[in-house]
Write a structure and sequence with these properties.
The protein is α+β, with helices and mostly antiparallel strands. Helices cover 53% and strands 11% of the residues. The longest helix is centred in the middle third of the chain and has 31 residues. It starts with a strand and ends with a strand. The model has no long low-confidence stretch (mean pLDDT 90). It binds protoporphyrin IX containing FE (HEM). The site of protoporphyrin IX containing FE has 25 residues, from helix 12 and helix 17.
């Protein structure tokens, strides 16, 4: 093993050992690698490298300075059958066009229009749950509710998905592409390849994808025929379709990209925010004082919502400790000018955001829940904070997501309280999107 500045170069036996640890438990496995070897670990094999890093300098190179040379699509290949040619996987000029046309629907004053529907739907759903008085798995319920709410504001206010099935299908498909499943599949492919066979997608995963596609096909067909009202974003996409600048397939793909990227991540953010608030009484007190102080104000613009400053900080801090997009990957497809190390083409860089956010070189007392770290919100735009990524590919929905989280937490603590059933930590199940290992069982009551 050769030491190279702060980068450790590991050999093949070590690579196998690390792969095993990652397949068993990605969060713990990657954590152990950093504990043993430092913040940048480089595995060399088969003429390409795999670099796992919690180094801000490398993150900056990949996400800002040299983002054009660091490709995302090739590193999320298993997701391509779901995402098609949508914004999450498109590249170069077509990505830029999609980003430009869609941005106004995720930033700017249009977001104000979403505030009331988001709050109303959330209260309605949670009132039903509270009135039932039964215990339920919080994370699963939040996902189902947010799936529908996100579809309503971004696609059509009339949409009625079979949300339990849809959440489970998206989970099944996305889980199959998570790092540990992906590694297992690669090994299977390698072994079957040696005897001349090709692995197929599992029947369960294929069925899930097929149902998601059927749902999207039907949805777009109904939107086209005017059977469903169109949300502003979809109205714009159909205008492009009328101008022949976009195909129906592209509209379907964008809807699936929004579904993939939007609801699960925000649901994860809300779930972990609840967990952290309920387990930190002093922070909860600060938050409820703020809610009490502002409870009679009409918070119907983004600017007015910003007065809920403490809740906002809670959201950023929850996303730091439990980043739903807990790792992302880039593949180096072209030579990176000025990169300190010589990196072979096709090498992969993994940025495990969960570990990055808990690196004591980057954040003081990294494991503690301290919303006050975000007193200066500018930190969230620095390379130290990767919950939404950074640079040109930074999450297009980041402003919407934070707005949603603030609205939901405000409305929840104004109107409801938990009758906590289960106290123990739910554990982490790091798929592509971080989930709990055992959902948190709760019951609610109205205040
Ligand atoms: C708490 C909630 C969210 C989190 C933590 C999150 C996280 C992220 C991250 C880390 C990235 C960058 C990935 C990379 O660079 O490889 C990203 C990109 C993206 N996100 Fe989000 N996201 C959230 C909510 C949303 C929402 C609500 C939407 C839309 C409805 C959305 C749509 C997207 C899209 C389309 C991209 C790709 C942007 C591009 O490449 O130009 N996200 N998100």
């Amino acid at each position: 093993m050769k030491k190279n500045n702060n980068c450790i170069v590991a050999d093949i036996p070590e690579l196998v050992k690390c792969f095993r640890a990652i397949i068993k438990d990605p969060i713990q496995g990657i954590g152990e690698i950093f504990d043993q070897k430092g913040p940048v670990v480089r595995f060399s094999f088969g003429g390409r490298d795999l670099v796992i890093s919690t180094d801000p300098g490398i993150a900056k190179q990949l996400l800002y300075d040299n983002y054009l040379f660091a490709d995302r699509k090739s590193s999320i290949q298993p997701l391509v059958p779901l995402l098609g040619s949508g914004i999450f996987v498109s590249e170069h000029q077509s990505w830029l066009n999609e980003r430009k046309t869609m941005s106004p629907y995720f930033f700017g004053s249009l977001l104000d229009k979403y505030i009331k529907p988001l709050a109303d739907d959330f209260i309605r759903e949670f009132t039903i749950l509270a009135d039932k008085g039964e215990s339920f798995g919080l994370e699963k319920k939040i996902k189902e509710i947010l799936l529908e709410i996100n579809l309503k504001i971004l696609v059509s206010p009339d949409v009625k998905p079979d949300r339990s099935l849809m959440v489970s299908d998206l989970d099944t498909f996305i889980e199959n592409a998570a790092i540990h499943s992906h590694m297992k599949n690669e090994i299977k492919e390698f072994m079957l390849g040696a005897i001349g066979l090709k692995p197929g997608r599992s029947r369960k995963v294929s069925a899930a994808l097929s149902r998601i596609n059927t749902f999207t096909d039907q949805l777009v067909d109904d939107l086209k025929k005017g059977k469903l009202l169109k949300a502003p974003l979809i109205e714009m996409l159909f205008e492009k379709y009328e101008e022949k600048a976009l195909s129906l397939q592209q509209i379907k793909d964008e809807i699936k990209n929004i579904l993939f990227a939007g609801f699960d991540t925000t649901a994860g953010g809300l779930f972990w925010s609840f967990w952290l608030i309920e387990n930190n009484p002093e922070k909860k007190r600060n938050m409820t004082e703020e809610i009490e102080r502002l409870k009679d104000d009409t918070l119907d613009t983004q600017e007015k919502l910003r007065t809920l400053g403490y809740i906002r900080k809670i959201c950023f801090e929850a996303l730091r400790l439990y980043p739903p997009a807990w790792m992302f990957t880039r593949q180096i497809l072209d030579e990176i000018p000025g990169f300190e190390e010589e990196i072979p083409l096709k090498s992969y860089f993994v940025l495990p955001v969960y570990h990055y956010h808990r690196n004591p070189e980057i954040w003081k007392a990294p494991d503690d829940f301290i919303p006050e770290r975000f007193d200066d919100e500018a930190v969230t735009n620095s390379i130290n904070y990767l919950a939404f990524g950074q640079g040109p590919h930074k999450c297009i929905g980041s402003r919407l997501a934070i707005m949603e989280l603030v609205i939901y937490l405000n409305e929840f603590y104004k109107n409801f309280e938990f009758e906590i059933i289960q106290k123990s930590h739910p554990g982490i199940n790091p798929g592509i999107i971080m989930k709990s290992r055992n959902d948190w069982q709760v019951a609610l009551r109205r205040k």
